[in-house]
Design brief:
This protein is of the alpha+beta class and 453 residues long. It has two domains: 3-182 and 366-450, Zn peptidases (Aminopeptidase, 3-Layer(aba) Sandwich); 183-363, Alpha-Beta Plaits (2-Layer Sandwich). It contains eleven helices and 24 strands. It starts with a helix and ends with a helix.
């Protein structure tokens, strides 16, 4: 049968399903006994499982942490792991962030490319496989989590309840395939400040594009501040608040924390602008000396690289209470290192003033050889459909693959495609690429089904 045509026949259905899922602002919410990640995330999961019910799949909801839809029978299990949670909408949108705008073949909205679009592509791929192979001797399971963006506790819950799988992939990365993921370290930095307030960021894995602070009048040179921002092409506003303080709002450019070089960190430019204008306190002194405008960790002593890439360093969130600043940092380190290596480098760096640096979490890298069976089966599917002979890649982004056995990230970002602005305003997915994802996933599932262990 013509798989490409079968996918095309589902085009309108896929668009409708994706718009329906994107209509949920499924950011991690306040936990309760019934809704561990908030009610909206649970509602989105219920809707996705309902779609799978309608397709004739067996479905299970594991206490609103995660759900799955399954076809086939047998001992062997093939897993497709996607997530329904999203990062906060943020600001700067020119299109509807909840999926109402389908313009020139692009559907806009938070989660269209990360990761609700690939979830829909996987869902329909399973339906097509079911039509092609009515009698399946292996089980195929679409696993849909609700906490990937905030630590993947949903997947840990799934593994505890259901165990691991024989083979699988998560459609939450690049094509042709990601055979290695950097390790993660997250830091919490605290310091005292004379600022009345400073805050920025909604998630540690996003470069913040707006930083708002309240600065005492007379503590900095207004003309020098203006000169610094103009020299660095940074938009800002400075307004009186009262007799003592002014409000400083600095605009940056959002990006994913795995590629901070693609953004402009509004926190960093706020601190460096104030420093250039003569302002100083324990917090800004530490930040200017040990972070600055860098995104490689060099000023904190942890810069490093291997043949697969270099360390990235992102200040994602900053908050202030009673003149105490808390900064949350996301570090992605090379796949040939261990978290203890990176933490050791940071520990050995001395700090001035009242700043303290604490490691809050650490995750080890993931790596598969390019000639491993899983990589070869998935790569054959991609190359067979696209004709593209690109080599597998490694990346700084973290996925479900590191939390379950025998799994790699496999699409849906295509090489040389336009930036889809995931984790940024005006995130979108090309509908033609959504269909191409689905076609590739059909062939990938068939390859995994035909594999003899």
């Amino acid at each position: 049968m013509d798989i490409k045509k079968m996918v095309q026949d589902h085009r309108e259905e896929m668009i409708a399903k994706l718009q329906q899922l994107v209509s949920y602002e499924s950011v991690k919410g306040e936990a309760s006994a019934e809704y561990p990640f908030g009610k909206v995330a649970a509602d989105c999961l219920a809707d996705a499982l309902g779609m799978c019910d309608d397709l004739g799949f067996k479905t299970v909801n594991l206490d609103n942490y995660v759900g799955y839809a399954e076809i086939g029978s047998g001992e062997k299990l093939i897993g497709l792991l996607g997530h329904l949670d999203v990062v906060p909408l943020g600001n700067g949108w020119t299109k509807d962030p909840l999926g109402k705008d389908l313009i020139n073949g692009r559907l806009y909205g938070r989660g269209t490319s990360d990761d609700k679009g690939p979830v829909v592509a996987s869902m329909i791929a399973m339906k097509i496989v079911q039509e092609l192979r009515p009698e399946l001797n292996k089980r195929i399971r679409l696993i849909m989590g609700c906490d990937e963006e905030s630590g993947s506790s949903c997947l840990a819950y799934y593994v505890k309840k259901e165990g691991h799988m024989d083979y699988g992939f998560t459609p939450d990365g690049p094509f042709p395939l990601c055979h290695g993921e950097k390790g993660h370290v997250r830091l919490e930095i605290t310091a005292s400040t004379a600022l009345r307030n400073i805050h920025a960021g909604l998630a540690v894995n996003v470069v913040p594009n707006l930083c708002e602070s309240e600065v005492k009048k007379g503590s900095f040179d207004v003309e020098k501040l203006d000169a610094y921002f103009k020299a660095n092409d940074i938009a800002y506003t400075l307004e009186d608040m009262d007799d003592e303080y002014v409000s400083l709002k600095v605009r940056g450019v959002a990006a994913h924390a795995s590629t901070p070089e693609h953004g402009k960190n509004a926190v960093s430019y706020t601190v460096m602008g104030l420093t250039a204008a003569g302002y100083s306190d324990d917090f800004t002194e530490f930040y200017a000396n040990h972070i600055g405008l860098t995104y490689d960790g060099s000023l904190l002593g942890c810069a490093c690289k291997d043949n697969y890439g270099e360390l990235t360093f992102n200040v994602g969130v900053i908050r202030c209470e009673d003149h105490k600043v808390t900064v949350l940092v996301d570090i992605r380190y090379p796949i040939t290192l261990k978290s203890t290596d990176v933490c050791g480098m940071i520990k050995e760096t001395g700090y001035a003033g009242n700043a303290t640096v604490k490691v809050t979490s650490a995750n080890e890298p993931l790596f598969f050889e390019v000639d491993s069976p899983l990589v070869k089966m998935l790569l054959d599917a991609y190359r067979g459909v696209t004709g593209d002979q690109s080599e597998p890649v490694t990346m700084g982004g973290g996925t479900y693959a590191r939390g379950i056995h025998n799994c790699v990230a496999f699409g849906g970002m295509f090489p040389n495609s336009e930036n889809t602005h995931m984790h940024d305003a005006d995130e979108f997915i090309e509908i033609d690429e959504l269909l191409l994802q689905c076609e590739i996933y059909v062939h990938a599932i068939l390859n995994l089904l035909d594999h003899e262990d």
